[in-house]
Amino acid sequence: MPSAELNSGPTTGTSAVPGPGQSIDFPAEQALPERAALIDLAAIASNVARIKELAGAAKLIAIIKADAYGHGALPVARTVLGAGADALGLVHVREALELRAEGVSGRMLAWLHTRATNFEAAIEQDIELGASGWDLEAAAEAASSVGAPAKVHLKIDTGLGRNGCTMEEWPGLVGRAAQLEADGLVRVTGIFSHLAVADEPDRAETREQLDKFDDAVHQARDAGLAPDLLHVANSPGILTADRYASGGTNRMTADAVRVGVALYGLSPIPGTSPEEFGLTPAMTLQTFISSVKEVPAGQGVSYGLRYSTSRPTTLALIPLGYGDGVPRVATGGPVRIYPSGAEAATYPEVGRIAMDQLVVDLGRPGLSDPSLGYLHAPVVLFGSGDNPSVNDWADAAGTINYEIVTRISPRVDRIYLREDNA
């Protein structure tokens, strides 16, 4: 994909999309596609450095599942590894194999499998496998076929209730893993779990999960296993890890941390901003106004006519909708507009979001005047700095920031900024 670099300010006659304290300049209006998710790889690299600072001696498993939360798995994989991440975390083996096919080396872990999972290819491509039950046997069978041991991370369910072995079945699982390890079919390289309420730091369940994890690790070691990576912390876990430090050790960070949404500069903890944790949002969702028109009082807007104008005003049409990943259920999501002949300002979306477009009420009549530059003006739905945040759109849709960035459609071009500096 094309890339561009940040510089210090706008240039006359260019298409500028302002960021935090500066602008992104392009040599011509055509330099940006109609809709773009601008991905700041330098911000991701900076977030890696910040997370490693918080993690101390623990290794960083950078989670780039779901196309790196919508940011683009391949460029993000290269960026985070170049910035010092120790391994990549994927959910599906297929995701890991796609990266291997693109020449991405380094340690990889994939942990959610079905009967269709290509365990043989994973072993051949040195992809480590999460296992918590039947998948351990599937990995061992594939290892026998390939003629090389499967590297596995055993997963214990300490309270989340999704995949992972129950505490009751854990002794049997680690015993079987030890037997398969002795047979040369598997090598247990990790033990892990996943936290349920780390984004609510005052809840007691997180410490209870850590207690269960410690117990599970002791049982595994008593069975003769010697994993090199113990990992339980997710993004909220690492951002609040100081709460779990005691006597010079930190049970939260363990040997490694698995960090996803914080890599992309988003806070997983409600009521907080990424800046509070030293993180920088990496994605800016941008387009251009496609139409402005004058309407009278009482003009209905969009399907269902749930909104009507209270006075004569100017409406701006934004060519982004739920087909691009903007949630249809969102109400009043903020849109920042950068007209060439007027001050930039943020307006709420009005009316029902359609598949391809949404509408903004500019608040007064007369703004279709060409000299004001609203037609074709750059628009940002979310980003950093003065732009609305992903959290604003998550609140408008009654969801979380993870979903907003991850759901941005493939028909929205990804443009990678500051790639050479990342």
Give a quick precis of the structure.
By secondary structure, this protein is α/β, with parallel strands linked by helices. It contains 11 helices and 24 strands. The model is unreliable at about 1-30 (pLDDT under 50).
Q: Could you characterize what this model shows?
A:
This protein is α/β, with parallel strands linked by helices and 422 residues long. Helix content is 26%, strand content 24%. It is built from 11 helices and 24 strands. The chain is elongated, with a radius of gyration of 24 Å.
Radius of gyration: 24 Å
Question: Could you say which structural class the secondary elements and strand pairing correspond to?
Answer: alpha/beta
Terminal Cα span: 16 Å
Q: How much helicity do the residues have?
A: 25-40%
What would the principal axes of the Cα set say about the shape?
Answer: elongated
Largest beta sheet: strand ordering: 1-24-4-15-23-20-21-22-19-16
Secondary structure: number of strands: 24
Number of helices: 11
**Largest β-sheet summary:** 10 strands, mixed
User: Mean of the pLDDT scores?
Assistant: 91
Low-confidence stretches: 1-30
| Beta-strand content bin | 15-25%
Keywords:
single chain; 422 residues; 11 helices; alpha/beta; disordered N terminus
Helices and strands in order, then pairings?
Layout: E1 3-4, E2 17-18, E3 23-24, E4 35-40, H1 41-55, E5 59-63, H2 65-69, H3 73-82, E6 87-90, H4 93-101, E7 107-110, H5 119-124, E8 127-131, H6 134-146, E9 150-155, H7 170-182, E10 186-192, H8 205-222, E11 229-233, H9 235-239, E12 245-246, E13 249-250, E14 256-259, E15 283-288, E16 291-295, E17 300-301, E18 307-308, E19 313-318, E20 334-337, E21 345-350, E22 358-361, E23 378-382, H10 390-397, H11 401-406, E24 413-417
Parallel strand pairs: 1-24, 4-24, 5-6, 5-14, 6-7, 7-8, 8-9, 9-10, 10-11, 11-14
Antiparallel strand pairs: 2-3, 4-15, 12-13, 15-23, 16-19, 17-18, 19-22, 20-21, 20-23, 21-22
